[in-house]
């Protein structure tokens, strides 16, 4: 899962980044309004943590701009302005949650997990497709009830497709979601192909019914034949 932190306080931003990376999220940063808008225009995120008071603009105006450019990300507002007016305005503009500063990192993590579960998995704790089941809380993967051992990136790729069964996924989109924003600067995708090849092998050996199909010239689709 890929998260963007829009926060001008460098110390707080670093603390949040480190805590989320420990939870195995892919994390991007924006210290101001302009950078955040640029990133959301160019990349997609599963969740955005948005501060209201930015040095070059207001986070609520930024939230409105996201929708104006056709982007509708999951947003948790983080703000020291703990007022009813700001909460209502943020929710009316499409924010999903509001967490006043200061906050405990444990609560932030819980809010993110709850939001992603609600919007990506219809409120379900487990992710299931075919005979594969994933528990995101402990990164456990089972096939027919038997645990499957995967490395970090193999798991991330599988979770990405398990959250989007049957959907055609462009290889660039997959790369950005699993490896981060600046993956478009690499010369080739050989390292991605290697991880996918290994994941396919593990799934086949475990007897998984869903298959990761290559769609020539575009990307991949995770389907049950």
From TrEMBL:
Residue spans binding DNA: 124-224
Residue intervals of the Response regulatory domain: 2-116
InterPro entries: CheY-like_superfamily (IPR011006), OmpR/PhoB-type_DNA-bd (IPR001867), Sig_transdc_resp-reg_receiver (IPR001789), WalR-like (IPR039420), WH-like_DNA-bd_sf (IPR036388)
Signal sequence coordinates: none
Sequence ranges assigned to domain OmpR/PhoB-type in this UniProt record: 124-224
PANTHER family for this protein: REGULATOR OF RPOS
Protein name, UniProt field: Response regulator transcription factor
């Amino acid at each position: 899962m890929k998260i963007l932190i829009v926060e001008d306080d460098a110390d707080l931003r670093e603390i949040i980044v480190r805590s989320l990376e420990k939870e195995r999220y892919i994390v991007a940063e924006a210290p101001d309004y302009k950078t955040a808008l640029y990133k959301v225009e160019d990349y997609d995120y599963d969740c955005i943590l948005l501060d209201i008071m930015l040095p070059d603009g207001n986070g609520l105006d930024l939230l409105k701009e996201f929708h104006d450019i056709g982007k509708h990300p999951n947003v948790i507002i983080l703000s020291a302005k703990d007022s009813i007016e700001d909460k209502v305005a943020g929710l009316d503009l499409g924010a999903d949650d509001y967490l006043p500063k200061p906050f405990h990192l444990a609560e932030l993590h819980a809010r993110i997990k709850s939001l992603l579960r609600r919007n990506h998995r219809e409120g379900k704790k487990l992710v299931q497709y075919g005979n594969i089941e994933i528990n995101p809380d402990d990164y456990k993967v089972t096939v027919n009830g038997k645990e499957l051992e995967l490395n970090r990136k193999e798991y991330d790729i599988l979770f990405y497709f398990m959250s989007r069964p049957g959907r055609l996924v462009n290889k660039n989109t997959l790369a950005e979601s699993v490896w981060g924003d600046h993956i478009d600067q690499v010369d080739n995708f050989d390292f991605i192909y290697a991880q996918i090849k290994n994941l396919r092998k593990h799934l086949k050996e475990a007897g998984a019914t869903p298959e990761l199909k290559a769609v020539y010239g575009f990307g991949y689709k995770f389907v049950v034949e």
